[in-house]
Specification:
The complex is a heteropentamer of chains A (378), B (412), C (550), D (232) and E (275).
Chain B lengths: L4 E6 L7 H20 L8 E6 L5 H14 L4 E4 L3 H13 L4 E3 L12 E3 L8 H12 L3 E7 L2 H16 L7 E6 L7 H10 L6 E6 L5 H10 L9 E3 L4 H4 L11 E4 L8 H14 L8 H20 L4 H8 L3 E3 L5 E3 L7 E2 L2 E5 L5 E6 L4 E2 L13 E4 L6 E5 L4 E2 L1 H11 L1
Chain C lengths: L14 H22 L7 H14 L5 H11 L4 H9 L3 E4 L5 E6 L4 E5 L6 E6 L3 E3 L4 H15 L5 H11 L5 H13 L3 H18 L2 H8 L4 H11 L4 H50 L7 H18 L4 H26 L8 H22 L16 E5 L2 E4 H23 L1 H11 L1 H6 L4 H23 L9 H16 L4 H41 L9 H5 L1
Chain E lengths: L2 H8 L21 E10 L2 E11 L4 E5 L6 H8 L7 E6 L3 E2 L5 H7 L1 E4 L11 H8 L6 H6 L4 H14 L14 H15 L3 E5 L7 H14 L4 E5 L3 H7 L2 E6 L2 E6 L1 H6 L1 H12 L1
Parallel strand pairs in E: 3-8, 3-9, 6-7, 7-8
Antiparallel strand pairs in E: 1-2, 1-4, 4-5, 9-10
The chains are: A mainly alpha (378), B alpha/beta (412), C alpha+beta (550), D alpha/beta (232), E alpha/beta (275).
The structure holds adenosine-5'-triphosphate (ATP) (2 copies) and magnesium ion (2 copies).
């Protein structure tokens, strides 16, 4: 089975080992340590880590399409945000009549803007199962339609990158519009419960953190499964010599579409888990610059390695958290400098550094180096 | 000595909002320095804890949590945009913090833990419209704003208000633009056309931030002068003007509760202090800075009154506290956590300052819930016991759900 | 004699020309003084002082009178006083009550002068001064008074402008003087204006013939008057007005179309300017230059810096900024190329990562070194206002200049890329670096020069943009996405593509805006781009043939 | 003209050229032969500077140490290169492809010598077509033409006949001979096809696994040698 | 097999694709049939009223001057280039002009490019694996397992192309000739009904040429092979029927002897010497 294949693989075992160990340790330190202990992990930290893990899952999704399929998506934030909105809509409906205006059905912002009834696309989001399906379906469907059009017409390279960017940009502007019924610029906030658990308790936070960790593990295994399967090799084939793959009988557009949709769904899940943890979803998640930043995490971690994406996402965001607190006036220098230094001195990202550490071992198949073709000028 | 009182500062120092928010960080730092020079409060020093939420709304929530949970600050001064406040709100409520919010906003909110020292719509928009209607004789209105909640709400309130005043629907034009909109050609041309119907026309602008510069430039270039179609802005202050060549804008208006040009000793002292603090002769002050000035002093007074920095004690103590504002009067914290403010209308001058042309005869108390919105007409907020409610419905006599829940938690 | 004026409110008055009009008025005022043969006496100073004090102390309702008193006093210093008053420069010293003119009102200490003697009184703290209040209404009146006087000016252009200002402002009291003016007036276009101004008033009175006068007019006031007439009870008048309006509408439509086209081209030219540098660094060199926006920003800040260096000469500073902006941005480009990009040869995607970092650094650098706030860049006189084609159509000058500038920059770049050796070498190097070097092309030098060129052009864009929008740390961020969009839409590596893409996207956007609104228009344009790329996966001007497939 | 001594080259860890020695006498055509993957192309790249060598020396024209020269300087010294796989600039027109070579011409001429078009008339015909659109053989002709534009003293040809129609291959051979005779050109040729090598080369060198295993006058190229080194 | 698997096998999103075994119908004539094909690029006629038929099991050599349109012809057959006019049939059932590249490839037409193209980021082994004639739809590909028989088959082909030692090397580092071999190997893995081979021996030694010749002749009969080559020695050694293309249409056709004595062919292509 393609899904169990990666479990036999050393790198995946290590990755999962580290991830689960981290989950366990954090949980233990949070639950069992007294609050004044130096080892105590506060709920704040737990949520923070949960957020990093969401970003990590998003980065893995991006790496899947970029690293292995050569599709530099500058719009993955869109799928992330849509997943987030689906979750946000569910959480919004869970507020019920506890909103400021006490309307049992309409969210506050709708009352506020004189909406009389719930728009049709909000229907069903009061049910968890429906919302959770939409978390997968909405981004998946968008990716399917968008990808179908784009791959069918063989849009590649920067052209594809830019239309993904246009997609997320257009969605951002659309979601900014108050008429859209998604809360405009303010987005959705003031969440209370998820599945009946109070979002403002530490236990729920810990639960979400663990759920995110598990989602990341599953997402990672799925991606790893794809890339170690024959389909993964076909993806690389499509990335490097599209025409050749086609002449071998592979439907390059289908391959691309499949992987793209899977990736979009993973991004959607990441977004859905992100929202309850940060407590807000708003259109800035659609911002093209955010999507570019995600790509930067992946590049920094090391493209086409998957675990590199995780490292990149966690590292950059951790750096951000620390720098914005420690050196609020100068953190951009540090972050920008980090990007520059990594690119210049670590051509294969941090994963490349790790890989060169354990040099001597046979190169694993299925983790090919990023090609050095001039994609951008093609 | 005792531990210092920790003051969290939650203003964006990078990203799109840095333009507006950095000065607020500096302001609070200045106020803290001054307070410490005067011996702190309750014999304790004050200490600023600065973080950068980087104009990123989820990050605001995260940083607020960091301030309250990790840094254990006693009070937070921060936020600019409504969305950042909305993002932070659940966090301050959950961790029972104190937040002083210094910017004019759309109202429709009153939190137990937040003190709104900027203007509510009734402290800015409505008086400004009154002025245009009564003193300038405006009959036709363009409500132009950036497409987000503050302009939406303000315009909604104004529309209702104007229609109540007998303005016909076709005499109101409403227009929304995206954030950072930079190409105003069509819209200004529309405004020009709208204004050529023979009736005196004015633009009420809730255009936000960066979009203003190209907007005013286009106004000037298309030959719309203040004497012709005046623009009254609610988001353009001295800070924004410092980035605009004000030559062509002389005479356009803004409504605020403070202008740097206000002729009062408190203001002059404040300006001197600010210039000294920044080391820049050209440094300007603006309304949100005054709001922080007031908020900070109120906090100090409340701490003195309560004799502790304990959040609940301060919350109780601060209602009713009066401190001088910078325009020569006093600001009082009302039970709804809004404050009393004078409303001033200023005209832009060529030196980047406003000259006050009109002001309310006395201060106006901020309304948490607008009288001109159907959903909130009956709501009031009062954080004194026994009512202790952010959205009390006077019609049903019940407290809104959220506040009820909080009160219940409180009781436990 | 000065006509007794009711205060007309002036429409479409160019604030900035008021000063020059006032200046040209001086002579006239002096002439008037002699006509009035005002008794010049030793107490003249006291009289002026009294007039000013009168103004300073007048309650809002009597300010008008006080002004009229000053005007009719015939004092030759009156112009200066009114000018100062109109500009908020008239103040009183708190202690003495003396009225002074503020020469410089920036900062805490203001420079003041004695309005009576013109003598400079040095600096005085702002605290000690009390401004004599003026507001829009009074300012309007002030301008009205002066405009009426302008009808007598020697320069026919001034007369025409002031006659135009009279449109829609004529009331019964003005009819007679205007008719008299009409008698005297020889210049045809001025006459036309006065006639139209009178006709607007007469249509309001129900005069049928006046409708004919207005029939062809594009002036908004004329239209407003006719609109009102349509609603009148007099069916004959309403009918006639309706016809007149219909013919006007016809003309207006054309003008609107022309205007929209201009808006579109102008927006397009901004896009082209912002993108054209990127068309080189990204399109030709293949560097995904996320710092492109910040290079634009540097150009804009250079303009600001120049204006700081040359205070009072914004025009000269702007012109000097063109080479300076190019050099600053090009130098920055060279530094970026040498310090980072050169190590990323053959790894174009990684340039995204590095230049993203650089863009963060540059932004924060500006915030730290200069200020997080926007900076003021002054628009020089000759770039302000608009080029009036007719009453309904005028082209804003700053945008006209930017449009021309964009075309010039484009043409120059085209020349460099097509006709010079550099252009050939850049393309050879990007297509096959090793081979190009084998052919003796000094690839490193080519890289530096190309990147410098692309960056320099970004700097030029910044200089131009400083005339349209904010000069602040976020400037670059606002243009980077659009720039990439334009370059790609046009077809990577094709300069013509960038030009056409920019102009057409701009035009489409402006065509859509009136009926879809600004936000929706933008969304539609983006969706259009997405769909268009489906049709033409390699942009507007794709590289065709086998070559492109590699 | 070209003297290679003790040349070693590595691709990462793999040792491709071993202590390689090669002499290319002036005014002659030396043909390097060898099975696929023995390192012929690598050797050419080392001479051109596209690959870096780890040790050894390459002396050009009696003294200039090539390993110390930058890639782009070597063409200035008068080395023209026709790489394997043509490596034309696909998006430049044929004429532009040729013009890239003008920069290093000694006489500073800004015009493409007519002679090139005489040698390859098809290039003139297709002057304005993009290089990448040409057929394989046309591209090969373009690559040779481009190398000739710089008027080299030493011309390196890596399998020049590959993909070219027979009469043109013959023509290329003739051109080589003519240039050698008329201009005193030195040619370093990589060629697999024996008849061609026999006909147009003066000398041969055989490589095997990165080493030179035989060398001599073309006449000395015996069947035995061929059997030993060129068959699998 | 569970219903679930059944369903996923059916794979509705990724529509029907033909199974690996070619259903091409050659009972009523040739395997490839081209009639009146025309192609022009920006006004340049690359293919000019081309007519050609290839019989089942035939080995056909195509020669012609550079730029005659040989590669373009292959582009048309494989669906890369759409002709302006004309018809191209594969067997008597399949109109190739209505199909795209993968469809044509799954029908059983394999192609080796003029410039060797392999997947540089994959190993030699993986290159061959991907070429293998299996179900190439997305989901089956995802679930494909490496069976022993596949491994064997790949081993055989590796043997044939002489790249056993390099089986785990990335294809990107192969030399030119090695890539040529690899591509031929991929073609073999594909087991197509019709092989289009564009200049297979460019860059090969004489002896390798012989091996290639052997290989191609051994394929003929079972499969149809179309070879484009400029090396006359090679062509001679394999040729049965030769077609000469010139300026986009057939100039001559016949046995090698016939063709090489045709004065036109000598003039435009062979030159005195080769003739
Ligand atoms: N970039 C590279 N990295 C690693 N190894 C390489 C690289 N390029 C070539 N090689 C290896 O070096 C050896 C020599 O390659 P080279 O291209 O020089 O062979 P060649 O003699 O020119 O062969 P052919 O006749 O096929 O062109 C080959 O085994 C090849 O696999
Ligand atoms: N996309 C294209 N655009 C313009 N011209 C083209 C294009 N494709 C092919 N050609 C031209 O069509 C002609 C035929 O090219 P083709 O590659 O089929 O030749 P060939 O017979 O394969 O030649 P060779 O033996 O040299 O490979 C050539 O003159 C070529 O320049
Ligand atoms: Mg070779
Ligand atoms: Mg060919």
């Amino acid at each position: 089975m393609w899904l169990t294949q990666p479990l036999r693989e050393r790198s995946t075992q290590i990755f999962l080992g580290v991830l689960f160990a981290a989950l366990a340790i954090v949980t233990f330190l949070h639950v069992a340590m007294p609050e004044d202990s130096a080892l105590y992990v506060s709920a704040y930290t737990v949520t923070l880590l949960g957020k990093y893990l969401c970003y990590a899952l998003l980065a893995v999704a991006v790496d899947l399409v970029w690293g292995y399929l050569g599709i530099l998506s500058l719009g993955h934030g869109a799928f992330f945000a849509i997943g987030g909105y689906a979750m946000g809509m569910y959480l919004m409906r869970q507020i019920g009549d506890r909103g400021t205006y006490g309307d049992p059905i309409l969210p506050d912002f709708m009352v506020f803007l004189n909406w009389q009834e719930l728009p049709w696309y909000w229907l069903g989001f009061d049910m968890a199962w429906f919302a959770f399906i939409m978390v997968l379906l909405a981004p998946g469907l968008l990716a399917l339609v968008f990808g179908f059009l784009a791959f069918r017409s063989r849009v590649t390279g920067v052209y594809l990158s830019i239309i993904t960017q246009a997609l997320t940009f257009a969605l951002m502007l659309a979601f900014f519009r108050n008429e859209m019924g998604f809360g405009g610029n303010n987005g959705l906030t003031d969440f209370r419960d998820i599945l009946g658990f109070n979002l403002r308790t530490d236990a729920t936070r810990l639960g979400l953190f663990i759920a995110t960790g598990i989602a990341l593990a599953i997402g990672y295994v799925i991606c790893r499964g794809i890339v170690t399967s024959k389909l993964g090799r076909v993806s690389i084939a499509c990335r490097d010599a599209e025409a050749r793959a086609r002449f071998l009988g592979y439907r390059v557009d289908r391959v691309q579409l499949f992987v793209f949709v899977v990736s979009a769904m993973l991004a959607g899940v990441a977004g859905a888990l992100y929202v309850p943890q940060v407590g807000i979803i708003n259109p800035s998640e659609f911002s093209p610059l955010f999507s570019i930043e995600v790509v930067v995490w992946v590049a920094l971690g090391g493209r086409a390695t998957l675990y590199g994406a995780v490292i990149g996402a966690v590292l950059v965001n951790y750096a951000k958290t620390v720098f914005t607190g420690v050196m609020p006036d100068a953190w951009l220098f540090a972050l920008g400098g980090l990007f520059v230094l990594v690119t210049v001195f670590l051509p294969k990202g941090i994963a490349g550094l790790l890989a060169s550490r354990r040099k001597g071992k046979q190169d694993e198949p299925g983790t090919p180096a990023a090609p050095t073709t001039t994609e951008a000028t093609a | 000595a005792e531990d210092p009182i920790k003051v969290g500062i939650l203003h964006s120092l990078s990203g799109t909002m840095a333009i507006s928010e950095t000065v607020l960080k500096d302001t609070v730092e200045m106020l803290i320095a001054k307070q410490n020079a005067e011996g702190g409060v309750l014999g304790r020093e004050l200490e600023a804890v600065v973080v950068d939420p980087a104009s990123n709304w989820p990050l605001f929530a995260e940083k607020a949590r960091e301030l309250l949970a990790q840094e254990k600050v006693d009070v937070i001064f921060g936020n600019w945009t409504s969305v950042s406040r909305k993002s932070v709100l659940p966090v301050v409520e959950e961790l029972n913090g104190l937040l002083f919010y210094p910017v004019q906003y759309e109202g429709e909110e009153s939190s137990e833990n937040v003190f709104y020292t900027g203007a509510a719509p009734n402290q800015q928009a409505i008086p400004a419209v009154d002025y245009l209607m009564n003193n300038i004789g405006v009959e036709r209105w363009v409500l132009a704003g950036t497409d987000y909640v503050y302009p939406r709400t303000t315009n909604k309130i104004l529309e209702t208000y104007l229609m109540d005043q007998g303005v016909a629907k076709e005499d109101i034009m409403i227009n929304y633009t995206p954030f950072g909109h930079s190409d105003w050609q069509n819209i200004v041309s529309d405004i020009k056309r709208f204004g050529s119907a023979g009736k005196k026309t004015a633009v009420v602008s809730t255009i936000n931030g960066d979009a203003n510069v190209p907007f005013y430039r286009e106004l000037g270039n298309q030959g719309i002068s203040a004497s012709d179609i005046p623009v009254v802005a609610f988001s353009v202050g001295e800070q924004e003007l410092s980035g605009i060549d004000t030559g062509p804008l002389v005479g356009h208006l803004a409504a605020w509760n403070y202008f740097m040009s206000v002729d009062s000793d408190a203001n002059y002292d404040f300006i001197d202090q600010w210039i000294e603090h920044t080391g820049n002769e050209e440094a300007v002050t603006n309304d949100p800075m005054e709001a922080h000035y007031i908020g900070f002093n109120m906090y100090i007074e409340a701490v003195k009154k309560a004799g502790t920095t304990d959040v609940d004690a301060v919350k109780d103590a601060i209602i009713g506290v009066s401190v001088p504002n910078l325009t020569g009067g006093y600001a009082t914290m009302m039970p709804n956590h809004h404050i009393t403010k004078p409303v001033l209308i200023g005209e832009i001058q060529d030196n980047g300052q406003f000259s006050v042309v009109w002001e309310t005869p006395s201060t106006v108390a901020g309304d948490a819930w607008s009288d001109f919105l159907p959903g909130s007409r009956d709501l009031i907020a009062d954080w004194r016991k026994p009512m202790f409610c952010g959205s009390f419905n006077t019609a049903t006599g019940k407290c809104g759900a959220s506040a009820g829940e909080m009160a219940a938690e409180e009781a436990e | 004699m000065l006509p007794r004026l009711s205060p007309p409110q002036l429409a479409f008055n160019r604030q900035d020309t008021i000063m020059s009009i006032l200046r040209s008025l001086t002579l006239l005022l002096i002439a008037l003084v002699s006509v009035l043969s005002f008794p010049a006496s030793a107490q003249e100073d006291d009289l002026g002082k009294a007039l000013l004090n009168n103004l300073a102390e007048a309650p809002a309702s009597r300010v008008e009178e006080a002004i009229n008193a000053i005007v009719s006093s015939g004092d030759e210093r009156a112009r200066g006083w009114l000018e100062a008053y109109g500009n908020n420069r008239l103040s009183r010293i708190d202690d003495t009550g003396q009225v002074v003119i503020v020469l410089n009102n920036r900062g805490r200490d203001w420079e003041i002068a004695n309005p009576l003697t013109g003598e400079n009184m040095g600096e005085m703290s702002r605290r000690e001064l009390d401004r004599i209040a003026i507001n829009n209404r009074i300012r309007g009146q002030l301008e009205g008074i002066l405009a009426m006087l302008d009808l007598n000016a020697a320069d026919p252009d001034v007369r025409e402008a002031s006659a135009q200002d009279m449109m829609g402002k004529v009331d019964a009291s003005l009819v007679e003087p205007l008719e008299a003016q009409l008698e005297r007036e020889e210049n045809a276009s001025v006459r036309n204006r006065i006639e139209e101004a009178l006709a607007i008033y007469r249509v309001g009175e129900g005069n049928l013939e006046a409708v004919d006068v207005l029939a062809g007019s594009l002036h908004p006031r004329a239209r407003a008057a006719l609109n009102e007439a349509v609603r009148s009870d007099n069916p004959a008048l309403a009918d006639k007005a309706e016809q007149a309006l219909a013919s006007i509408e016809q003309k207006l439509k054309l003008n609107r179309a022309a205007e929209t086209l201009y808006f579109g081209l102008s927006l397009g030219s901004v896009l082209v300017l912002a993108a054209i540098g990127l068309a080189i660094t990204f399109g030709v060199m293949g560097v995904i230059n996320m710092a492109h926006g910040e290079l634009i920003m540097l150009g804009a800040y250079t303009t600001w810096g120049m204006q700081q260096l040359l205070p009072g000469q914004p025009g000269l500073a702007l012109i000097l900024s063109i080479p300076a902006g190019f050099l600053v941005a090009a130098t920055a480009g060279i530094i970026i190329e040498r310090s980072v990009i050169q190590f990323l040869k053959g790894r174009p995607l990684e340039t995204l990562l590095a230049t993203f970092g650089i863009s963060l650094i540059l932004q924060q650098l500006v915030r730290t070194v200069i200020s997080p706030q926007n900076r003021t860049v002054v628009t020089p006189e000759w770039m302000s206002g608009s080029l009036v084609i007719n009453d309904a159509l005028s082209l804003t000058l700053n945008r006209l200049y930017v449009l021309a500038f964009a075309l010039i920059v484009f043409a120059a770049l085209m020349m460099i890329m097509r006709k010079t050796r550099l252009g050939l070498e850049v393309r050879a190097v990007t297509q096959n670096r090793a081979m190009a070097r084998s052919m003796g092309i000094r690839a490193t030098r080519v890289d530096i020069m190309t990147f410098a060129l692309g960056s320099g052009v970004a700097g030029l864009a910044g200089v131009a943009l400083s005339q349209l929008t904010n000069v602040g740390p976020n400037l670059g961020q606002n243009y980077i996405i659009d720039s990439f969009m334009v370059v790609v839409f046009g077809g990577v590596g094709n300069l013509w593509g960038t030009l056409i893409a920019g102009l057409s996207l701009g035009t489409i956007n402006q065509l859509l805006e009136p009926w879809a609104g600004a936000v929706l228009a933008k969304i539609i344009v983006l969706v259009f781009i997405i769909l268009f790329i489906q049709k033409r996966p390699k942009g507007l001007f794709p590289q065709k043939g086998r070559a492109a497939e590699g | 003209m070209l003297k290679i001594e003790k040349l070693n080259q590595f691709y990462g860890e793999s040792h491709t050229l071993w202590e390689l020695e090669l002499d290319v006498p002036k005014g002659q055509c030396t043909c390097v032969m060898g099975r696929n993957g023995v390192g012929k192309t690598t050797l050419m790249k080392c001479v051109m500077g596209e690959e870096t060598t780890s040790s050894g020396s390459i002396q050009f024209d009696g003294g200039t140490e090539l390993t110390k020269q930058k890639l782009e300087e070597r063409s200035r010294l008068g080395i023209g290169y026709v790489p394997q796989g043509r490596q034309i600039f696909p998006l430049l027109t044929v004429e532009e492809n040729l013009r890239t070579g003008l920069a290093v011409r000694k006489d500073g001429s800004k015009k493409i010598p007519e002679r090139i078009y005489e040698l390859f008339p098809v290039l003139k015909e297709m002057k304005n077509r993009r290089g990448g659109d040409l057929s394989g053989g046309q591209q090969q002709q373009l690559a040779i033409g481009r190398a000739l534009v710089i008027e080299p003293q030493l011309l390196i040809l890596d399998e020049p006949g590959e993909g070219i129609q027979p009469n043109i291959v013959a023509q290329i051979g003739e051109v080589i001979r003519r240039l050698i005779k008329e201009d005193g050109l030195t040619v370093l040729l990589v060629e697999q096809k024996l008849p061609f090598a026999r006909k147009y080369a003066d000398r041969f060198a055989i490589m095997d696994r990165g080493r030179r295993v035989a060398e001599g006058e073309i006449a000395e190229l015996s069947d035995e040698l061929i059997k030993k080194h060129l068959t699998v | 097999m569970s219903i679930l698997e059944e369903l996923s096998n059916r794979d509705r999103v990724f529509e029907f694709l033909t199974p690996a075994v070619s259903p091409v119908d050659t009972r009523h004539g040739p395997i490839l049939y081209m009639e009146d094909v025309n192609v022009s690029f920006d006004g340049f006629r690359a293919i000019n009223n081309l007519n050609m038929t290839i019989d089942d099991g035939e080995l056909r050599c195509i020669i012609g001057p550079n730029g005659a349109g040989k590669t373009t012809m292959m582009d048309i057959i494989t669906g890369k280039t759409a002709p302006d006019t004309g018809s191209v049939w594969f067997g008597s059932r399949h109109n190739l002009l209505t199909m795209n590249e993968p469809e044509i490839a799954t029908l059983g037409i394999g192609r080796k490019f003029q410039k060797p193209t392999v997947f540089e980021a994959l190993t030699v082994f993986e290159n061959l694996e991907l070429a293998m004639a299996t179900d190439k739809r997305v989901i089956p590909t995802l679930r494909a397992a490496m069976k022993a028989e596949f491994r064997e088959r790949i081993g055989e082909v590796l043997e044939t192309i002489g790249l056993q030692e390099l089986r785990n090397q990335l294809a990107g580092i192969l030399s030119h000739g090695q890539k040529q071999w690899l591509e031929i190997g991929m073609l073999l893995m594909q087991k197509p009904r019709l092989l289009l081979v564009d200049e297979p021996v460019a860059g090969m030694t004489e002896q390798e040429m012989e091996r290639t010749a052997e290989l191609l002749t051994s394929l003929a009969g079972k499969q149809s092979v179309v070879v484009v080559e400029h090396d006359m020695g090679f062509v001679r050694s394999i040729a049965r029927k030769v077609t000469v293309l010139h300026q986009g249409s057939v100039l001559a056709e016949g046995s090698m002897d016939q063709v090489s004595n045709d004065p036109e062919v000598i003039k435009v292509y062979l030159g005195e010497e080769e003739a």
